Amino acid sequence: MASIRRTLSQVYQDRSYQNGVASAQAHKLFSTNNNSGKYSSWTSTSAAAAASVYLRRKGFRRSFYRCTIFFILGLLLGIFPFGQVDNDINKHDFSFEMKPPDVNVQLDTKDNFALAAVSLGVEKTTPQLDRFSRFDYAERKQVIVITPTYNRALQAYFLNRLGQVLRLVQPPLLWIVVEMTSASAETAEILRKTGVMYRHLVCVNKNNTNVKDRGVHQRNAGLEHIERHRLDGIVYFADDDNVYSLELFESLRNISHFGTWPVAMLAQSKNKAIVEGPVCNASQVIGWHTNEKSKRLRRFHVDMSGFAFNSTILWDPKRWNRPFSNPIRQLDTVKEGFQETTFIEQVVEDESQMESVPPSCSRILNWHLHLDAHGLVYPRGWLLQKNLEVVQPIT
């Protein structure tokens, strides 16, 4: 019998597929269909569709594999830094060392550091970094102000005036206000409105029968509070009826052990001023200003608002080599006017341990004025209900 070989049609011979896989499958499918003799043009269409589906799946897999490989490569490149810029940043990481070629440092009048530019090897591209180009590296000591107060006609005026001065002092500052017997709501309201960090204390002393010793017990209550809580800073006794300059509180931060300065006092007759305090040569105390009319022999002629000291003297005697560990307090058993000198004798031994504030004691930084109105009656609730209904007879 003669064998007849049937070849593919010209249409399928000219069509080519990638890797020849789809062509072979289509050829096989077409041959099978021709042998059976039961398929028509639908067979060729289905073969082409099957080949197209196969190519789509294969192309999707290839694209997925490529994307996965590129993603992994990008992740690895991001994890492992390289290049000159990154190495330069790593050298300066967590370093505050200032080098002249890279940093331009300027000092202003308030002892603050202003950094004009800081270069870490990376150029500044955003203008928002200018807000962070100013840093303050000067560590300020805390100023602890102890103020005794009591109910009287001008108490609100005195506390508000002192509070506004302390509000202008750069932090940290702690204002310890001490009252006798109980804390008044009026005093608490004034302290809240000043905006100063404060602590409102009450001195309860049943044995206190002398009005002159009132301030002594109140200051001792503030000292006890500092010692109990181990507050670190410069302690200063500031009465509410004195006048203080802002420069005084800023100068207190320069004290390391004990500092003193002259205080101008208005005489009782109010016709002249008296200076009381140290006579200084540079930073050394070499003598004292005394009142010619005073016959009191004191070791240190200092006003209560004319000295300040380090608070660690109260609760860390080993640091200052104190021979005894008794608490440092003001004494109410001494005569009036001797509270200052007896207290200072517990803190320092002589003038060699004192520091002048400011240098050479060249300026008067606070005034002790006798302006309290003793004839006025303390109004209840600090409010005069009928202060405009006064009838004065004609003489």
From TrEMBL:
The keyword Transferase applies. The chain crosses the membrane at residues 64-83. Its cofactor is Mn(2+). Its main location: Golgi. Keywords: Cell wall biogenesis/degradation, Glycoprotein, Glycosyltransferase, Golgi apparatus, Manganese, Membrane, Metal-binding, Signal-anchor, Transferase, Transmembrane, Transmembrane helix. The record marks E276 as: Interaction with galactose moiety of substrate glycoprotein. PANTHER family: GALACTOSYLGALACTOSYLXYLOSYLPROTEIN 3-BETA-GLUCURONOSYLTRANSFERASE 3, GALACTOSYLGALACTOSYLXYLOSYLPROTEIN 3-BETA-GLUCURONOSYLTRANSFERASE BETA-1,3-GLUCURONYLTRANSFERASE. This is Glycosyltransferases. It comes from Populus euphratica (Euphrates poplar). The gene is LOC105120455.
